[in-house]
Specification:
The protein is of the alpha/beta class. The chain is built from 18 helices and 12 strands.
Length: 497
């Protein structure tokens, strides 16, 4: 079970960086220092995998690979792959408040290519990485090389394979990215900060995972998905959410002891210290939609693998640090499945104030939960206050015993502090705040609006904005309510390269 502790949700893409998007560089090390100052113990991030449609980290070409956009050019300079002039030429001149995905993708791909030209692809370290990660890396490299050879077309339209040199490049790309991420994670761990990662339950139709393992999915004889994933109408969307991911053939996966899932979970438990599995309810029952459906309204509930899968997980991994994203789970059988699995679930304050029977009301939390004001799919807490129905807002304010100006934001927002203190007093083992809430930001800094294909995942912080966070207040909060039980000495500051 997790120790009583607190943390901050801040995706890599939102970090300060001179290269158009947050990355594995100096901004991440500075953020670790900031977490230490606040006596936080967790840094929660979104999936590290390459992004997909709409820049979403939940739709990727690989469930195992790391995102090239997170490449730190200064790291390449330090390791001798780039010159100072090459790094200086890559500095972004646009807004530091928004991630520029298109620009960063172009620039960082060019820098990685230059690094590859100088690399010794026969070095022992790279060879060891290739062998260790072969269970997914070779398929990923072949997939990406073939996609390049076919002009970026969907894999169904491919007419040729990728060249060996292109395959070698993608292996080198992942070698560098894993090396940079492992350094940042090691720095965090050495300073008492653990990483809570994120795993989408499904993979993309246009992914190396589906392309190389179609026998593990529900497919037609031609290799096309029979049905696709989504969720029925819910809080976020009246038409439901049509995700479009191919569905797993759980009968087939059971035949080899869920090998692919054990590899995937094992990989996540290695690159993170703990992992949140998104849409955990899909292991109990999942919403299956015909492949030609226009919305997720049309679908059926189908049984998932249930505890059979997690008996296999627990047999291989001792005390796996898993958080189950169980939002919206109220049916009796599902609740029993979650109890049997034993992993912490999630509670979100923004879901609590729709009457006095909500399961998200803080007095109903138990130890085995992670408590949030909101997640990456929610509005900011201040934004919620401004957009909530008057009766919902009044209920929250009364619950938090707040009387006064509820509309003021900023790092010293009195209403947000009343909310934080209410959340910190629950018995939940872990409490997480999105970084926007620490800063008291409004709706314009929201990370994602489910159901909207464009305009998401762009929010970024600046170094100046991070310095405005009241670290003394959060340090006091953690110490007062027992979320900082382990004393960690002040960190050695990460110097700018």
């Amino acid at each position: 079970m997790f120790q009583r502790s607190a943390g901050v949700l801040m995706n890599l893409s939102s970090l300060p960086s001179p290269f158009g998007i947050g990355d594995f560089g100096h901004g991440g090390y500075q953020f670790v220092d900031l977490l230490c100052e606040m006596r936080m113990r967790w840094w929660q991030i979104l999936p590290l995998c390459p992004i997909g449609k709409g820049n979403s980290p939940y739709s990727s070409v690989s469930a195992f690979a790391l995102n090239l956009l997170y490449l730190d050019p200064y790291g390449l300079l330090k390791d001798g792959y780039l010159s100072q002039a090459e790094v200086d030429a890559a500095v972004y001149s646009g807004s530091p408040h928004q991630a520029d995905y298109k620009w960063a993708a172009c620039v960082k791909a060019a820098l990685m290519r230059k690094a590859y030209e100088k690399a010794d692809v026969r070095c022992a370290e790279l060879k060891a990485f290739r062998e260790e990660q072969a269970f997914w890396l070779i398929d990923y490299a072949r997939f990406m090389a073939a996609r390049d050879a076919n002009g970026g077309k969907p894999w169904r339209a491919w007419t040729k394979n990728g060249a060996q040199e292109a395959i070698d490049y993608y292996i080198f790309e992942q070698f560098i990215l894993f090396q940079q991420w492992n350094r940042l994670k090691a720095y965090a761990n050495a300073h008492g900060i653990s990483i809570l990662g994120d795993m989408p339950i499904y993979v993309s139709d246009e992914s190396a995972d589906f392309w190389a393992n179609r026998t593990l999915f529900e497919t037609t004889p031609e290799g096309e998905p029979k049905r696709i994933a989504g969720v029925p109408p819910d809080y976020f969307s009246e038409d439901g959410q049509l995700w479009g991911n191919p569905l797993y053939d759980w009968v087939r996966m059971k035949q080899d002891g869920y090998r692919w899932w054990l590899q995937r979970i094992g990989n996540s438990l290695k690159i993170y210290d703990a992992v949140r599995i998104d849409h955990f309810r899909g292991f109990y029952r999942y919403w299956a939609v015909p492949a030609d459906a226009k919305t997720a309204r049309v679908g059926t509930w189908e049984p998932g693998p249930g505890m059979e899968l997690f008996h296999a997980v627990n047999a291989v991994f001792s005390n796996p640090q898993i958080v189950a994203e169980d939002l919206g789970c109220e049916e009796e059988g599902l609740v029993q499945f979650l109890l049997e699995a034993g992993y912490p679930g999630m509670k979100v304050m923004q879901f609590a104030y729709y009457g006095w029977d909500s399961i998200h009301l803080p007095y109903k939390y138990t130890e085995n939960y992670v408590a949030y004001t909101g997640t990456h799919d929610n509005d900011t807490m201040l934004g919620w206050l401004w957009s909530a129905k008057p009766e919902e807002r009044s209920q929250l304010l009364a619950y938090c015993r707040f009387t006064g100006d509820w509309g003021s934001g900023g790092p010293q927002s009195p209403v947000l502090r009343a909310i934080f203190e209410t959340l910190w007093q629950t018995p939940a083992r872990m409490t997480i705040l999105p970084v926007q809430d620490l800063c008291g930001y409004g709706t314009d800094t929201r990370m994602n609006l489910p159901g909207e294909a464009e305009g998401n995942w762009c929010f970024r912080m600046t170094e100046e904005a991070l310095r405005q966070i009241d670290t003394a207040y959060f340090r006091q909060l953690n110490e007062r309510y027992g979320l900082s039980l382990i004393h960690i000495s002040e960190p050695t500051r990460h110097a700018q390269i």
